[in-house]
Amino acid sequence: GLDAFDKRAVTMANTTMFVPGEKIEYTIPKENLITDKERVLRQKAGAANNREEALWRLQKATPIIETLDKPEPPFKKNKPSGLLFGMVGFILGLLLSSFILIFDLLYKYINAEINHAVFGDEEEVASTSSDVSGNAAVK
Q1: Domain parsing of the chain, residue ranges
Q2: Prediction pTM value
């Protein structure tokens, strides 16, 4: 009867978007669209809640620090003193140039001291080696 016809009409309305059954090529059920829409809305609400909770946890974990003594202009910038660098450079230049000027004298002195430490006095070496007869030189 009539109940079967109404049931078929309701089913057709819910499943076919009011297109007659013989002309349907693709079916998009209204019930599936409604459940998909509800599912998307639930997912969106859940994502928003998760984002808010993550933001709250981040704010809770992040300490809030504020500087108590704020600098006021004019700001002082510490820059190296040109006079100090000039004096240090001048003193180092004097030391380096004096070392270069007396290097030859230092080299001769050190060379003589090393020869004296290794070979001893040259007069004794010369006098003992020049005596061929085997008699030692008397001091």
Answers
A1: 1-65, 71-139
A2: 0.30
Q: Please report, as a single letter, which amino acid is at residue 99.
A: F
Q: What is the pLDDT along the chain (139 residues), one digit of tens a residue?
A: 678 877 877 777 776 566 666 666 666 667 777 888 899 999 999 999 999 999 999 888 877 776 666 777 777 777 878 899 999 999 999 999 999 999 999 999 999 999 999 988 765 555 555 555 555 555 4
Using DSSP's 3-state secondary structure scheme, residue 72 falls into coil
Check whether the bond before 74 is cis (ω within 30° of 0): yes
As a whole number of angstroms, the distance between CA 26 and CA 17 comes to 11
At residue 19, the 3 state secondary structure works out as coil
